Amino acid sequence: MRLTLSLSEPHERTSVERAIAEMRMGRPVLLDGQERGSILVQGLEDLTPERAAELDVIAAGAARLVLPAARLRRLGLQREGNGAVALPSVDPARIATLAFEIDARVDAPVHATEALDEDALELARLALSLPAIVVIPLGPSVAADASVLRVAASAVHGYRADRVRDLVMVARSPVPLADAHETEFVVFRGGEGLRDQVAIIVGKPDPAEPVIIRLHSACLTGDLFGSLKCDCGDQLRTSVRYMAEQGGGVLLYLDQEGRGNGIANKIRAYKLQAQGYDTYDADEMLGFGPDQRRFDFAARMLEQLGIRRVRLITNNPDKIEALAKSGIQVVSHERVFGRTTAENTRYLTSKRDRFGHLIELAGERPRKDG
Ligand SMILES: Nc1nc2c(ncn2[C@@H]2O[C@H](COP(=O)(O)OP(=O)(O)OP(=O)(O)O)[C@@H](O)[C@H]2O)c(=O)[nH]1
Ligand SMILES: [Zn+2]
Hints:
Layout: H1 11-24, E1 29-32, E2 38-43, H2 49-58, E3 63-67, H3 69-74, E4 83-87, H4 92-100, E5 110-112, H5 115-126, E6 133-138, E7 149-152, H6 153-157, H7 159-163, E8 168-174, E9 183-190, E10 195-203, E11 211-217, H8 220-224, H9 232-245, E12 248-254, H10 263-274, H11 279-285, H12 296-304, E13 309-313, H13 317-325, E14 329-334, H14 345-355
Parallel strand pairs: 1-7, 11-12, 11-13, 13-14
Antiparallel strand pairs: 1-2, 2-6, 3-4, 3-6, 4-5, 8-9, 9-10, 10-12
Bound molecules: guanosine-5'-triphosphate and zinc ion.
């Protein structure tokens, strides 16, 4: 007798996680839109000439390069929505130029994206790849073998919102810190991309009262290495010290490197910043909007810790709004500043002037609080 092994996990969601892994490894994924047809999507980062030639052979109709509106604006097209640039052939050099060269201009028709194109871009973002996708339409005569992963477009569509509810606590232990001796680390797993998110409980916060909270997005360069380009490391340590002084608080250390773009894209953006672009323009050049982060899962972490009312340490009005929208009562907010350096002044000024962060810079008169 033959037994069939079948796991009870929802297959659709699992297939998105597998597709994220495929994208990260540079392999193409078959996106199944059912009656809308199927497309093969290939991230840009590993588009070798050999792969490009393979894709050219199977394309049923014109291939296209799907780019976010942010990147299209940088290519000189004023448009609100994302777009698909027609590709007469899958030419890696031309595609790379369109996707991230500084002085590139569009040289072919750009069409509105189809729903499947949007799902393909979402996959790239989930994989922390560059949001630039080569799309190959597949005719009915193409049958992909087991080497190509098939994922339902509908599963990609609802993935992030769906995953928010699945955050589970997987480990907790005391970890004494130099600035806060009585501290416990609590690890959550799940959420988008199954990343690990950590709650650092300082002292003994009382959940019956509003708890001092910081949502801190990971910044490898600033938090760990003391990079002069941002204020993250100072904000991190100041917040922990403040919580210890006040008798308790919780810092959520969120796996959201580079405002959610991932470390590779942040370092790509830093390279552009070294050429004169500010933090938002550099991200736009790579196809990212001002901020990819969502904080709804942070609200779920707080709830699991029994916290519903908070005093939030932040200068970022979006964090206040996002938590409030996710059902956490933000009783008050307090600002937190790092040192100003020659290297981070432009970063801080851009955050203040372009996105309303409540930042005071040394030598300036205090600004009115929001
Ligand atoms: N894309 C991009 N991300 C950056 C850059 N500099 C820092 N970051 C990231 O920006 C985020 C900063 O996180 P936070 O300090 O939590 O957030 P914030 O939005 O500044 O808000 P508050 O510090 O709470 O006021 C981290 O994910 C950093 O890795 C940059 O130049 N480009
Ligand atoms: Zn930083």
